[in-house]
Amino acid sequence: MFRLETDRALIGAFRPRDRRVIEMPSGIRFPLFVRDYLAWTETSGARVYLVFTAPGSNTPIGLIFRRDSPDSGTPSSRICDWCHSYGSSSDVGLLTTDVNSKRRVGVSLCVDLRCKEKLEDVADRSGRHPREVLEQLKERMYRFAHEALGIEAQPAA
């Protein structure tokens, strides 16, 4: 769990290069307590925002993904690299983010980043506590941020 005191703290979680394009989520109030992660889609649907903390850290990390337009062909089945949920090409797709001005990386994810809800549902139906799978989800998020974007987590104080 982490807390964001102000909108400036939320914006500060993102890389400086990404801060100029942030569209704040509607209806958000501060201080904001975030249990696992915060995700929202901008009104145009073109970008998806994610704020989370790495395991062992309480410093928020923000990522902005661009949604690639859905396939215009036959719908296909895909799997999310983070929560391992299956879905059609309208549910799971390639989300990309800029590494720098010349390079982008992508990952196949739930296009609305609602992985948490899917994992909690599966855990509830199987009689397990979701905490372990949600920690694994955050580890996967951080691994992507670290390996693909070079983002370092700051240890908890």
Question: H/E element string?
Answer: EHEEEEEEEEHH
Q: Using only CA atoms, what is the Rg?
A: 16 Å
Separate helix tally? 3
Strand-pairing-aware structural class: alpha+beta
The portion of residues assigned to helices is: 10-25%
> Overall pLDDT, averaged?
93
DSSP strand tally: 9
Strand content: 25-35%
Shape: globular
The largest beta-sheet arranges its strands as 3-4-5-8-9
Instruction: Give the termini distance in whole angstroms.
Output: 14 Å
As residue ranges, the low-confidence spans are: none
Number of structurally distinct domains: 1
List the helices and strands and how they pair.
Elements: E1 2-4, H1 7-12, E2 32-34, E3 37-41, E4 47-53, E5 60-67, E6 77-79, E7 86-88, E8 92-100, E9 103-110, H2 115-126, H3 131-149
Antiparallel strand pairs: 1-2, 3-4, 4-5, 5-8, 6-7, 8-9
Features:
alpha+beta; two-stranded antiparallel ribbon; 31% strand; globular
